[in-house]
Amino acid sequence: MTEVLLCNNLVRSGVLERQCGISFESVIGVNGGSNTVLSPFKPYIIGSGDTEGMCSASDQRVLSQIKPVSKELTNLSLSFGEENTQALAEMTEKLKAFNHWCNGGFYQYLR
Questions:
Q1: Residue 54, class by beta-carbon neighbours within 10 Å (0-12 exposed, 13-18 middle, 19+ buried)?
Q2: How far apart are CA 102 and CA 42, in angstroms?
Q3: Are 44 and 38 in contact (CB under 8 A)?
Q4: To the nearest 10°, the Cα dihedral for 73, 77, 79, 82?
Q5: What does the alpha-carbon distance between residue 54 and residue 25 come to, in Å, rounded to a whole number?
Q6: How many CA atoms, within 13 angstroms, populate the side-chain half-sphere of residue 89?
Q7: What is the pLDDT of residues 56-105, one digit of tens each?
Q8: Please, what is the end-to-end C-alpha distance for the chain in angstroms?
Q9: CA–CA separation, 90 vs 98, rounded Å?
Q10: Is residue 52 classed as helix, strand or coil in its secondary structure?
């Protein structure tokens, strides 16, 4: 599973390593690795980069999908915590599928 890092402040490499125990070299953004600081409200992938500091196509897709809502997702995660935010995302996906089934999938099912 892809690990995503979100922050609401500038984070320097020393702070990230000291407070979170995350090596700065293992953090990759949309445009590859960061020089010396992580920007607020931008999503980053932890630990799945190649030797050039770029992440896989699937991880790039995850970052691209999160980027437009990263500020809201960061604030939601800070308010509810990681596990609750993940549970809300999973429940939302299930409700979307159920809503699709109720709005049209059910009628196709009956045919």
A1: middle
A2: 35
A3: yes
A4: 160
A5: 11
A6: 13
A7: 788 888 888 888 888 988 888 888 888 888 888 888 888 887 776 676 65
A8: 38
A9: 12
A10: coil
Instruction: Please tell me whether the overall predicted TM-score, pTM, comes out greater than 0.70 for this model.
Output: no
- Please give the structure tokens belonging to residue 9: 């402040």
Contact 41, 70 (CB under 8 A): yes
Write out the two tokens for 72.
Answer: 């809201």
- Which residues, including other chains, have CB under 8 Å from residue 109's CB and lie 6 or more apart? 101
Q: Considering only CA atoms, which of 46, 40, 39 is closest in space to residue 4?
A: 46
Strands in 27-81 per DSSP E: 27-29, 32-33, 37-38, 44-46
Query: Tokens 């915590």, residue?
Result: 81
